[in-house]
Predict the structure.
Amino acid sequence: MIPLAGAALSEGIGYHILNMSYNETLLRLTTLSDLSPPQEEDTRWAPSATVLYRCSVNVSLNPIFYPLSHLFQEGTPSNLYTVVITGMILPTREHDVKETTIAKAVSGELWRNIPYLLIVAFIIETLLEGIFSRIRVRLRRDSPDGWSPK
């Protein structure tokens, strides 16, 4: 089950990104001149920013891993992720915001398809068990000294 879910969540195997848009908007910037001098040893006295991050994504799901989504006409889900972050001025969070947007779009459909993935995993496990039991029987039968693997 876990390898199937991992494949379903990997880009290129489980889904393809059709299009993505991303933008950052600076809502407020607090500079040192805007702040009053620190009282004693205030470590929070530093420039900060309030930034609005918006990311929108459309993905196409692989029908092998997401058949129930395609059955319910949700084979190309989209997601809009918006977050407002206030804090010290840091490098852009573009990668984090994009990854979160994709994960929210795909993981919602993964949960819908869990019953299907469980059935496929059970069938694969049953087939592998049958193959290994036949190999075990053949090894016992062909063993010249009566040795049998356990």
